[in-house]
Specification:
Layout lengths: L12 H5 L3 E4 L11 H14 L3 E5 L1 H11 L3 E4 L13 H10 L3 E5 L11 H10 L3 E5 L3 H9 L4 E3 L17 H10 L4 E4 L5 H9 L4 E4 L1 H4 L1 H12 L1
Parallel strand pairs: 1-2, 1-8, 2-3, 3-4, 4-5, 5-6, 6-7, 7-8
Helix pairs in contact: 2-3, 3-4, 4-5
Length: about 230
């Protein structure tokens, strides 16, 4: 008797994202685009354009996006504007999981967290709640430490924005290359990726996936570039 066919295992989230584009759909405070419905529509546009996942800010936007877009959602919660403010505490992280985030992105730099907790404690709590963690780092040592503390993805998000990391206008592809060469954890290139060519170079440098934000989803900032050039 021929045994019944078995279903193929579903691909892991890392497999779904491999070699693909993640679009960061955010808007800063005071920007006209900073409205939940507008941001959700932005994620839908990203899906229509071929994005494999989206990265959004705040539990309300995460929940609305999960309900609407049908893509993996990387959630973060920016609270404040200095020091560790990207998902700074376990409380912030668990709120994002409750909102439906498949992945919680959090600052994993060497700076102290505002509640005195550790990044490892955040990872443990998120894993226990059934989600994964993307570590936003700025240096090779931070990336290695985050992977050692259980991060499921390591992103170059904070390179150039934290003292001790190189300030530059272009993506930090050297950091991508360094981390991809030493980590088994998937490395996600993020930060100042402004053109399709730069995104392709990030993959060639060893990135597992690439996040693009401003160059796709920030009309205010892009308009200002043109206006300033003409002025």
């Amino acid at each position: 008797m021929t045994p019944p066919p078995t279903a193929s295992p579903s691909p892991s989230l890392a497999d779904q994202l491999k070699g693909r584009l993640i679009v960061s759909c955010q808007a800063p405070p005071g920007d006209p685009m900073r409205h939940t419905d507008t941001l959700v529509r932005m994620t839908l546009a990203a899906r229509s354009g071929g994005a494999a996942a989206v990265r959004v800010n705040g539990p309300e936007v995460v929940a609305a996006t999960v309900a609407a877009v049908g893509l993996p959602v990387i959630g973060l919660w920016k609270d404040g504007d200095s020091g560790v403010f990207i998902t700074p505490t376990v409380r912030h992280a668990l709120a994002l999981v409750e909102a439906g985030a498949a992945v919680v992105a959090a600052d994993a730099t060497a700076r102290p967290r505002p509640d005195g907790s550790t990044f490892a404690e955040l990872v443990e709590a998120v894993h226990a709640a059934g989600a994964q963690v993307m570590a936003d780092v700025s240096t090779p040592s931070e990336g290695r430490a985050a992977a050692g503390q259980g991060a499921d993805f390591v992103g170059t998000t904070l390179s150039g924005y934290v003292p001790g990391s190189p300030v530059q206008d272009a993506p930090d592809l050297a950091l991508v290359t360094d981390l991809a060469g030493v980590l088994d954890t998937p490395v996600i290139a993020e930060g100042r990726i402004a053109t399709p060519e730069q995104a392709a170079r990030a993959l060639a440098a060893g990135a597992h996936s690439v996040v693009v934000g401003t160059a796709i989803t920030a009309p205010t900032a892009l308009t200002r570039l043109f206006a300033d050039a003409l002025a």
